[in-house]
């Protein structure tokens, strides 16, 4: 197949890239671009070249099928140097997305025009790397490093309008090809084209100062991320190195990152998240149900946050409570939350008012009757939820989707309270719902395929990372979290103290340790769950019985004097822990940070193996996507299952066996799948997807 088609408008040649589905920069396309530019340069009948594209994308970036394989000539930097060195003007006509190498192609051209809907970005940071074909050198020269660096550091695409404001594109036009041809003719009349690599007027002392301030802030926030540090070094080279040397330095950093284990983990996480949207058993042709109106039951913190998710996506939503007093309070809380965004400058008053207008407060379940989907966010108690669903079954129209936001409970049992279990699904939002990215879509065996497809489409529309999971207690995330919580309690009784455990966990890369997190969330939440399940946790229960629920009571595992947000060690708690150890006949000992991490994470991995074995998760990457987006697992470690593969499953099996023998806890015995993979010398990455 021809990946570049040539046509001509007078003395202007138009090279149309046609490499479906997204015009990725495959080796064949790179070779075709070289051939095209060389032919144009040698053709006396052609005065200029427009590079355009067929389909919905200009160029969406690298060909992902080439990741991890030996490089194939011509390499992209060579192609772009050839484009820039062309003696005849080359104009990029950008429609759709120009991402990564696609934007680098445009940067190598002598002018850039864009369609109104175009998106421009350098997202390599999300793949654990940096732009590797001149992006870190050409973009700062074009718009200044202080504007270019944030664009590369976040990896987020910008609109054509924003690109024009920055100076990245020269014109936004609805008649893109005609405008690009006119621009090419204009440049041809001017003679030798201006090359981005030769521009230095944007790289001023003031720009350098502003960039260094941004770099200092990025180092403080992302100092453990090799790609962020490499990006700073590469962009700094735009100031300190001649262009060819800057390109060489960028490429060396890019190649080094490809081999870095942390960068590999980031790439793994990126592709795992993408793969999670492909659900075994749900055909790509299954059409989602239309969702024009939503309803949320419960106007507490969670319910209000879910209502905001709908409003933020432009979906009208009815927020429902049992009394006028409760709905007034919940509706006001939503307005206050939007108000904080306005005060921070992240939202305009007009945008706040538009979103508030989409949220209709109401009393009584009958108000949900016209909704296409209702999300129940009531108290986490089975009887309450079944009663609500029984009533919803009577008022909801046929074909409406009934969703529960339960964190732990059996969704099939909730669905059984209705006469339409096929329309019931779990939508587990994470708190705060309007901020957290993860959406666990819980699929009982009786849920219809188009309901699951609708939930996936809704998750994406709400800006979430949706992951379909099976129906069991705690689903994927909380089921594994329960094992870490039990492991943390065991560590306290065995000899560790709360601050030691939390320090080990933050050293591993989490933002908070389990005990600081418990104090933040409120220890009474877990206490209530344990009582409902008939389980015990000696230390945690003793603290709750003493009224130590965490930050909201001023004391939990730590002390919080006068409303402090950072806890202080409490001798009273440490004495309590030591007393409980003595009562259990345990001789306390010290633990290294590595031992603490192993004792916390290994049981989680073991539970993950069980989850895979039972078909609750379709693939290890789905588990990792849950933990990366819902539980702040450090991205550069890839997720618990990826981390386990890097440690070695045989190592984890031996450690679990030792823990089980030491504690007498049979739940620490390695899961059959974990044993089998370890015995075969395999990892979780060797497993194929199965239906959840």
From TrEMBL:
Pathway: Lipid metabolism; fatty acid beta-oxidation. Keywords: Fatty acid metabolism, Isomerase, Lipid degradation, Lipid metabolism, Lyase, Multifunctional enzyme, NAD, Oxidoreductase, Peroxisome. Transmembrane segments: none annotated. Gene3D superfamilies: 1.10.1040.50, 2-enoyl-CoA Hydratase, Chain A, domain 1 (3.90.226.10), NAD(P)-binding Rossmann-like Domain (3.40.50.720). It catalyses: a (3S)-3-hydroxyacyl-CoA + NAD(+) = a 3-oxoacyl-CoA + NADH + H(+). InterPro entries: 3-OHacyl-CoA_DH_NAD-bd, 3HC_DH_C, 6-PGluconate_DH-like_C_sf, ClpP/crotonase-like_dom_sf, Enoyl-CoA_hyd/isom_CS, Enoyl-CoA_hydra/iso, NAD(P)-bd_dom_sf. In the N-terminal section; belongs to the enoyl-CoA hydratase/isomerase family. It is found in: Peroxisome. This is 3-hydroxyacyl-CoA dehydrogenase. GO terms for molecular function: (3S)-3-hydroxyacyl-CoA dehydrogenase (NAD+) activity; enoyl-CoA hydratase activity; isomerase activity; NAD+ binding. Residues 294-471 form the 3-hydroxyacyl-CoA dehydrogenase NAD binding domain. GO terms for biological process: fatty acid beta-oxidation. Its main location: other. It comes from Bosea caraganae. It comes from the Bacteria. CDD domains: crotonase-like. Residues 474-560, 596-682 form the 3-hydroxyacyl-CoA dehydrogenase C-terminal domain.
């Amino acid at each position: 197949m021809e990946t570049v088609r040539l046509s001509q408008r007078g003395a202007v040649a138009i090279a149309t890239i046609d490499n479906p589905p997204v015009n990725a920069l495959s080796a064949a396309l790179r070779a075709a671009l070289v051939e095209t530019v060389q032919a144009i340069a040698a053709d006396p009948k052609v005065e200029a070249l427009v590079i355009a594209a067929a389909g919905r994308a200009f160029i969406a970036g690298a060909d992902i099928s080439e990741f991890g394989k030996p490089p194939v000539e011509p390499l992209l930097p060579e192609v772009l140097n050839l484009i820039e060195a062309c003696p005849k003007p080359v104009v990029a006509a950008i429609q759709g997305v120009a991402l990564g190498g696609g934007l680098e192609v445009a940067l190598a051209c002598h002018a850039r025009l864009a369609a109104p809907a175009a998106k421009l970005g350098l997202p390599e940071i999300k793949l654990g790397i940096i732009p590797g074909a001149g992006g870190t050198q050409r973009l700062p020269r074009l718009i200044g490093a202080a504007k270019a660096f944030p664009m590369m550091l976040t990896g987020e695409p910008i609109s054509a309008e924003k690109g024009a404001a920055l100076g990245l594109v020269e014109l936004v036009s609805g008649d893109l090809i005609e405008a690009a041809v006119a621009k090419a003719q204009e440049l041809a009349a001017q003679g030798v084209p201006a090359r981005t690599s030769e521009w230095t007027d944007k790289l001023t002392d003031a720009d350098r100062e502003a960039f260094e301030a941004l770099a200092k802030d990025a180092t403080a926030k992302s100092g453990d991320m090799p790609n962020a540090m490499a990006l700073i070094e590469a962009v700094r080279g735009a100031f300190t190195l001649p262009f060819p040397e800057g390109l060489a330095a960028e490429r060396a950093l890019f190649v080094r990152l490809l081999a870095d284990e942390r960068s590999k983990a980031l790439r793994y996480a990126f592709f795992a998240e993408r793969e999670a949207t492909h659900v075994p058993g749900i055909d790509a042709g299954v059409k989602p149900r239309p969702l024009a109106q939503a309803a949320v039951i419960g106007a507490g913190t969670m319910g209000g946050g879910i209502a905001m998710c709908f409003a933020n996506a432009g979906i009208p939503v009815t927020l429902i409570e049992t009394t006028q007093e409760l709905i007034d309070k919940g509706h006001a809380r939503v307005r206050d939350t939007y108000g904080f965004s306005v005060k921070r400058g992240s939202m305009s008053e007009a945008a706040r008012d538009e979103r508030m207008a989409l949220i209709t407060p109401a009393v009584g379940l009958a108000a949900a009757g016209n909704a296409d989907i209702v999300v129940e966010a009531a108290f986490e108690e089975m009887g309450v939820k079944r009663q609500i669903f029984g009533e919803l079954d009577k008022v909801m129209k046929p074909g409406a989707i009934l969703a529960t936001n339960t964190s732990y409970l059996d969704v099939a049992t909730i669905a059984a309270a209705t006469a339409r279990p096929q329309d019931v699904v779990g939508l587990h939002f994470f708190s705060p719902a309007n901020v957290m990215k993860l959406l666990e879509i819980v699929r009982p065996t009786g849920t219809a395929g188009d309901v699951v497809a609708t939930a996936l489409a809704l998750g994406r529309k709400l800006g979430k990372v949706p992951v379909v999971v099976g129906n069991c207690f705690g689903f994927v995330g909380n089921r594994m979290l329960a094992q870490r919580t039990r492991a943390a309690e065991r560590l306290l009784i065995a000899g560790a103290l709360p601050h030691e455990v939390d320090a080990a966990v933050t050293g591993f890369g989490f933002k908070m340790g389990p005990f600081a997190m418990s104090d933040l969330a409120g220890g009474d939440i877990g206490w209530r769950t344990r009582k409902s399940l008939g389980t015990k946790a000696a230390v945690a229960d003793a603290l709750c019985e003493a009224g130590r629920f965490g930050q909201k009571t001023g004391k939990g595992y730590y002390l919080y004097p006068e409303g402090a947000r950072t806890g202080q060690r409490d001798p009273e708690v440490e004495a309590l822990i030591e007393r409980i150890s003595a009562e259990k006949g345990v001789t306390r000992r010290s633990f290294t940070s590595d031992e603490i991490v192993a004792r916390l994470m290994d049981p989680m991995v073991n539970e993950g193996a069980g989850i895979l074995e039972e078909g609750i998760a379709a693939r290890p990457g789905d588990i990792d996507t849950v933990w990366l987006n819902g539980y702040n697992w450090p991205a550069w470690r890839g997720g618990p299952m990826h981390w386990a593969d890097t440690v070695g499953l045989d190592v984890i099996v031996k450690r679990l066996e030792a823990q089980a023998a030491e504690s007498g806890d049979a739940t620490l015995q390695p899961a059959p799948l974990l044993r089998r993979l370890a015995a075969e010398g395999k990892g979780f990455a060797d497993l194929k997807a199965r239906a959840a």
